[in-house]
Amino acid sequence: MTNDNAVREAGLAERESRLSAEPLRSAGPRAGFVTGTWHSVRDVFSHSELLNLLVRRELKARYKDSVLGFFWSLARPLALLLTYYVALGKFLEAERSIPSFAIFVFTGLTAWQLFSDIVINSTSSIVNNSGLIKKVYVPREVFPLSSVGAALFNFWIQILILLAATAAAKQFPTGDRWVYFPLSLAVLVVFGTALGLLLAAINVYLRDVQYLTEILIMILFWLSPIVYSWELVQRALDGTFWEQLYLANPMTLVVLGFQRTFWVAGDGQAYPDDLIARLAITLGVSFVLLWFSQRVFSRLQSNFAQEL
């Protein structure tokens, strides 16, 4: 027993020595608008392996003990597609005015599912990882970013299904229409990540935010041309202030950009003027919002452990 105690004490002493040699890290905001952001980005990149592990953990935990596994990542959008196709396409005869209505709806749902997953899962990511946050120091940004990574994994599965559907309908997208896709996807990811970071930090102090976010996401869904065409919006709002306000919604532009890429049957349909220019401007604004959200997150994170 004496030898065991001696070995145990030697091990503790060695660990204490290693810990004392580690530099102290501040959990508070880094000074400076530019240098603080640079330090935060560098911290995240230095923990890229941890970020990768968190993404894998989130994907595995989501489908743990599930027989069908990742099939469930498709279940919700496919169920929504079936519901809207039958309720709106067949019963309300929307497919008469919208060619290839099934592809049209699934295109919008694919973009929307990614945005919804990023924002909702990021908002609750800090609270859901409270045990880890209270025990060790890691850049807190890795938790919302892991939600973004998991959402992107599911998104690419849905994109493959969408491409298969367009090929089956002999409407596979080709040519310069693909210019819209990377630009629209960049707006979606940057804007969604910016909202996710901001809401994740606020949700630590005000837990009602995650429930309010779900309601706002539902409202925003119907304020985007996913189950109805832009032509209907244009007829109702053409030339008014409300049309410009409608187009100020980044997800409206994202969905329209996705439709321009994948909805080949809609080439003759109306689209807003200068859609690419609008997307480019929105991407720039989204980057500014992402920077602002990160600085707010950095300032609020110092008390995360105490609040959790």
Overview of this structure, please?
The protein is mainly alpha-helical. The model has no long low-confidence stretch (mean pLDDT 83). It is built from 15 helices and no strands. Helix 2 (33-46) crosses helix 14 (275-300) and helix 5 runs antiparallel to helix 8 (142-168). It is elongated, with a radius of gyration of 23 Å. It has one domain (40-307).
The percentage helix is: over 70%
Percent range for β-strand residues: under 5%
Structural class of the secondary elements? mainly alpha
Report the total helices.
Answer: 15
Compressed to H and E, one letter per element, the order equals HHHHHHHHHHHHHHH
Count of separate structural domains: 1
Radius of gyration from the alpha-carbon trace, in angstroms: 23 Å
**What is the oligomeric state here?**
single chain
Total DSSP E strands: 0
Please outline the major beta sheet: none
Please report the distance between the alpha carbons of the first and last residues: 40 Å
In round numbers, the mean pLDDT is: 83
Morphology call: elongated
- List the uncertain runs: none
Task: Write out key terms for the chains shown.
308 residues, mainly alpha, 73% helix, 0% strand
Briefly summarize what is shown.
With 308 residues, this protein is mainly α. It is 73% helix and 0% strand.
